[in-house]
Inverse folding.
């Protein structure tokens, strides 16, 4: 094929890029799962009468941060 370069000398680098990409995808999936669990746990607290302000205080974040977490 015209213009094709031999990149075999860079195979280790390409392999590492693939590994890092796969790890990033895996961590993104885990992050979504943890965000959903966090939201469910907070909704459970709210259903039991705990306020967003109380949750925020316990977690050391703002009430606005709690609202964002609940929206995800």
């Amino acid at each position: 094929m015209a213009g094709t370069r031999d990149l075999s000398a860079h195979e280790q680098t390409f392999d590492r890029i693939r590994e890092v990409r796969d790890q990033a995808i895996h961590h993104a999936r885990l992050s979504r799962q943890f965000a959903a669990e966090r939201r469910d746990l907070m909704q459970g607290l709210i259903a039991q009468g705990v306020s967003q302000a109380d949750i925020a205080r316990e977690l050391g974040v703002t009430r606005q941060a709690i609202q964002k977490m609940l929206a995800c």
Notes: The chain is about 75% helix and 0% strand. The helical segments are 11-47, 52-59, 63-71.
